[in-house]
Amino acid sequence: KLLNLEALTPPRPTISNVQWVTGTIHVTPADMDALIGGPNRPPSKRMIEQRRAEEEQQRAMKRPAAAGPSSSEKEEEGYWAYMQRQMQERTQNLGLVGDSMDHVEESSSSWADDVNKYVSKQKKKAVMGFVGSKLGF
Fold it and tell me: Which of 124, 102, 106, 126 is nearest to 114 (CA)?
């Protein structure tokens, strides 16, 4: 049987066109899962991996952290050492942001150059086509 009339159809997510265009309401992945797969849909591989990662993270939070500095070392860290460490971390983060902005600038300038080349080629073709049509080529 292709059509089971007794099966319950899940209600579809209600969102108006205006809400969708303005971005005020979004259809969540859970809504899409319920709409497509129904209530008895088995979990996907991504959901299983996410659940495993969350469980491992909870286990790691329960046991004491051996890699990080102990609480006594954090308490011994003075105000100036803390400020110095914070400045160093922020400087590293700003360096990463600066590198990524340089990359964005380079890629956007190369894109603009490619667009300018394409437009000039199209202009040249249009002029040559016009001249050719008037001269009978």
Answer: 106
